[in-house]
Amino acid sequence: MIHPRLLRRTALAAAVGLTGALLPVVLTMPPAQAADGPCLSEKPTGGSLLGGGTRCDDVNQPDTTITSATPTPTSGGYINSKSISIAFAGAYADADTDPISFECKFQDPTQAAASWSACTSPFSKSDLNDSKAGNYTFSVRALDSNDNAIDATSKPSGLGGSGATSDIPDLDESPATMSFRVDTVAPAVYILNVPFDADNPDKPLVYTQSPSFRLAASEANVALTCTIDTTDYPCQVGITTFADLPPGDHTLTVNGADPAGNTDPTPESVQFAVPENITTTSKAWTTLKQSTYVGGDYITTRTKGASVRVPADNYRDLRLLCSTGPKYGVVQLIFPSGKPVTIDLYRKKRTRHDIIVIQDRFSQLRTGGVTIKVISDNKPVILDGLLAH
Ligand SMILES: [Ca+2]
Ligand SMILES: [Ca+2]
Ligand SMILES: [Ca+2]
Ligand SMILES: [Ca+2]
Questions:
Q1: Which residue segments constitute the domains of the chain, with CATH numbers given?
Q2: Mean pLDDT of successive 10-residue segments in the chain (389 residues)?
Q3: What span, in angstroms and rounded, lies between the C-alpha atoms of 313 and 334?
Q4: Is 128 helix (H, G, I), strand (E, B) or coil?
Q5: Quick one: 95 exposed, middle or buried, by C-beta within 10 A (0-12, 13-18, 19+)?
Q6: Which ligand has its closest atom nearest to the C-alpha of 151?
Q7: Where does the secretion signal sit in this chain (predicted)?
Q8: How far is the CA of 379 from the centre of ligand 1 (A)?
Q9: How far is the C-alpha of 386 from the C-alpha of 311, rounded, in Å?
Q10: Out of 139, 218, 300, 366, which could bridge 175 as a Cys pair, Cβ 3.0 to 4.6 Å?
């Protein structure tokens, strides 16, 4: 392979040589047989005390490798720093022992085309700007310092010397490059639909075991991370449903990382309370499936004396999730200790998903399961869930 630029250079060298009285002689001679490699050095060999000798083209270029970058760009190609340090190395594939030097080029996407200049490893750059719109590009090429300084086609000084017919450039013509973007701005994450509960604002009831939250971030391509209490849950920008949570109090914490790995220094969190689903296998009750109810079902009966036991532990705030209306009956809540509480489900207007506060968050601490017993006769009772926290 002969580089086009070399062809020009060789022609020029030949023209320079074709001068004076030698001209006719040279024209009749075959082209000089230069040793065109492979060789390791372009210094003349075989000369005498009078100089001369033969040049050979070192045609093997050193290879350049970027060995590390600090910080290392993320898989998305970002660093979250205003400075970077890039280390590199050069090597020969053959036995060349000529010293290797380097030239670097650092292209700022907002600046005119950069040019090569001598550099050593590591190359450092500071005062970088956030560059989401374009890449910074670093390039480095290794040079065979000795042979890069020699035009192998030139005739050695002195008598009888000859140059090579070509000089393949003595630097790596396929430079090592790396591109990256800079993002030093941390994203902010948001939980947009925090549940509201006037009876217990700090630990609001969600009327489901599978609550949905609308999550958002201040910039695009933010990967959210969600934990409920201490368990990680998959989540994303938009609506995420956390399915089948156990009853009781929970804390959802949301954070997010942008492609540069910046995270929100103030993660968002929200507390909420999930009710216990009321279920039974007793023949006195009928279970009906309906997705809008806690646990996807409710139980119903008209039988006086029918009862169901619901687990509960260490609670003050106690609420019954049930239907109320003009035709509904009466139930009694029986506790392991203390007096039973009678709840009349009669209301003027029907409410399919009603919440009856039996005792509030300032009430005495209770523990142990609650038994709900029907004390009305032949009136519908529909029970859905119980919040005890
Ligand atoms: Ca060399
Ligand atoms: Ca050279
Ligand atoms: Ca060369
Ligand atoms: Ca239910």
A1: 1-184 (no CATH), 189-274 (2.60.40.10), 277-388 (2.60.120.260)
A2: 41 37 36 58 87 91 98 95 98 96 96 97 97 92 97 90 93 98 96 93 95 96 96 96 95 96 96 97 98 96 98 96 98 96 98 96 95 98 97
A3: 14
A4: coil
A5: exposed
A6: 2
A7: 1-34
A8: 102
A9: 9
A10: 139
